[in-house]
Structure to design on (400 residues):
């Protein structure tokens, strides 16, 4: 199970790394979570440089792909040479997007017939791309999920875990990262977002 | 205003980078937030390599220092050559710790006479170091704050903002990162942790 978290120049640290941290709570053999970048190193919107753990091309064969967010997403979708390197297939993969990552899914034509979540800044651009934007933190239909607001990255990661390892595993991962003294409430709230979006 | 986030080999991505992301919502001139590391690069508990933005020695002159968490904290506190490079002075600096970072404050003797928060895994070691551990996400007294559970890193960061830029700035930073549709509830809950711990 390889989960690639697409992480571009100018990335939002919260969006990529909360998902990565939550997903890495699963300790199953073969479970692999990578920062998946267009270059060997990328630098965040706040100057944090990280090393890629997989290439954009490897995302095509990943079992799940989460598209991260950042301050350069509009440049990315306006760069055909970059956009064409992102090959996603929700028929074969779980595909999720966080905040402005939803704009990438929109430009790839993946959310043209389902509503989506994104952050408040990105919302007008996603609407402009013809997508219905929901005023909520998380939504999924089938193999496609979107989340809005940085800290909703934990819901997106938990959805991947729920879809592959089950709800108990998702709850355990969320419980671990939740604030002390608020763990049960946090898990219950997150699962309220995810549960209605799982296949019957 | 320099805020150094101490980030060691084996660091927990959530603890250092949630704080960094929230703190960077402040856009004041001279506001500077750095990953502060013992080496030019450090690799997280899940294999993510990041570049240091300041040295451990620079933390001594920072206006605020947050001690991150990770899987090697017990090694760090058992390494005098490393521990001696961490020079913190709560008389002159805001000092906070996240999860196992509290163990570092404990070994530096900074939380011997106030209770502290930490994560459930680290709790027995902090207790063993003679510190009273609270079953809550956040606590601060004076210039010293501690938080427990990865996602409580947003409370710790908001406390630094509240102490330096005021409650409105803290609320604005939290609002930005909160999940869409849950922003007001999230901010209110976070401020309930922080407000009672601010100086009169």
């Amino acid at each position: 199970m390889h989960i690639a978290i697409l992480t571009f120049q100018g990335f939002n640290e919260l969006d990529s790394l909360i998902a990565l941290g939550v997903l890495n709570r699963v300790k199953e053999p073969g479970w692999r979570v990578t920062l998946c970048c267009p270059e060997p190193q990328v630098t965040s919107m706040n100057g944090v440089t990280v090393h890629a753990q997989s290439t954009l091309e490897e995302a095509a064969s990943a079992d799940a792909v989460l598209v991260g967010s950042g301050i350069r997403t509009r440049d990315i979708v306006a760069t055909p040479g970059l956009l064409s390197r992102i090959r996603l297939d929700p028929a074969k993969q779980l595909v999720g997007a966080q905040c402005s990552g939803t704009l990438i899914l929109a430009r790839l034509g993946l959310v043209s017939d389902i509503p989506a979540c994104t952050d408040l800044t990105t919302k007008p651009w996603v609407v402009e791309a013809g997508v219905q934007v929901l005023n909520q933190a998380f939504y999924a239909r089938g193999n496609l999920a979107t989340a809005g607001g940085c800290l909703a990255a934990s819901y997106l990661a938990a959805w991947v875990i729920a879809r592959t390892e089950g709800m108990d595993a998702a709850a355990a991962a969320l419980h671990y990262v939740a604030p002390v003294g608020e763990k049960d409430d946090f898990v219950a709230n997150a699962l309220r977002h995810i549960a209605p979006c799982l296949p019957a």
Remarks:
- The radius of gyration of chain A is 15 Å.
- Chain A has one domain: 2-197.
- The domain at 2-197 of chain A is CATH 3.40.50.880 (Rossmann fold).
- The longest helix of chain A spans residues 153-165.
